[in-house]
């Protein structure tokens, strides 16, 4: 039985579900980085970093240079865009709630002033 | 050996890494919903829906009514807010690239008009 390839969005979220992988992406946000440079701040082994990079690469969140000596990794933001697009309505719901709470508190405050 | 509890953000992303769970959240976005109502559009069994709801509940993305007869589930947006906050800089990077591309295309277009 062949395993079904998960959809892109599921792969993106699964790749993000690890604090070390998120820290690696944050480092790559600053520019392309080699495995050695990525490993140094994390207190984890090079093979462990390589395993995380493989997960990120399979999910399309990074590309790795095949030719350069230290194979620097580069961030790909497109899958992250798809993920933030998916979350946008929920964010609006949250922000709407905050707006309504603000209005409610403002009403209470004004009412308090009038009652005083 | 006791497994370490994953951090909230990792739990959120892991819970989102499944198309059925994302569809359940989209349905709950419209309001509290029972297991039966959730199962009907998905062609999956009630126990399968219940397993997905357990994952979402453990991740704090839903709450379930303990008392009401059909235990309706309610969306909790706070963990999603944390997740979108984490993604915000990457979105800005993406949008910055789009802005620069737009400026570049505009320059090419204007140049084309001047050259004509």
Shape of chain A: elongated
Main structural class of chain A: mainly alpha
Pair with the biggest interface:
A-B, 30 and 31 residues
Task: Describe the strand arrangement of the main beta sheet of chain A, using strand numbers.
Answer: 1-2
Q: Mind summarizing the main beta sheet of chain A?
A: 2 strands, antiparallel
Oligomer: homodimer
Percent strand of chain A equals: 5-15%
Strand tally of chain A = 2
Helix content of chain A: 55-70%
Give the ordered list of helices and strands of chain A. Answer: HHHHEEH
Average pLDDT score of chain A? 86
Gyration radius over CA of chain A: 22 Å
Instruction: Point out poorly predicted stretches of chain A.
Output: none
Number of helices in the DSSP assignment of chain A: 5
The termini of chain A sit apart by: 74 Å
Describe this entry's structure for a reader.
The first copy, chain A, has 116 residues and is mainly α. In chain A, 65% of the residues lie in helices and 5% in strands. Chain A is built from five helices and two strands. The first copy, chain A, has helices at 8-16, 19-28, 35-39, 46-58, 78-115, and strands at 62-64, 73-75. In chain A, strands 1-2 form a two-stranded antiparallel sheet. In chain A, strand 1 and strand 2 form a beta hairpin. In chain A, helix 1 (8-16) crosses helix 5 (78-115). Chain A is elongated and about 75 Å long. Chain A binds chain B through residues 6-7, 9-11, 13-14, 16-19, 22, 25, 29, 75, 77-78, 80-81, 83-84, 86-91, 93-94, 97, and chain B through 6-7, 9-14, 16-19, 22, 25, 29, 75, 77-78, 80-81, 83-84, 86-91, 93-94, 97.
């Amino acid at each position: 039985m062949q395993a079904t390839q998960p959809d892109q969005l599921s792969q993106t979220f699964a790749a993000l579900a690890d604090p070390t992988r998120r820290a690696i992406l944050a480092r790559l946000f600053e520019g392309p980085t080699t495995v050695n440079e990525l490993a140094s701040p994390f207190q984890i082994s090079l093979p462990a970093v390589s395993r995380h990079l493989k997960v990120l690469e399979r999910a399309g969140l990074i590309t790795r240079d095949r030719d350069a000596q230290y194979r620097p990794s580069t961030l790909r933001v497109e899958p992250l865009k798809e993920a933030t697009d998916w979350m946008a309505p929920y964010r609006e719901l949250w922000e709407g709630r905050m707006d309504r709470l603000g209005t409610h508190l403002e009403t209470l405050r004004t009412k308090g002033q009038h009652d005083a």
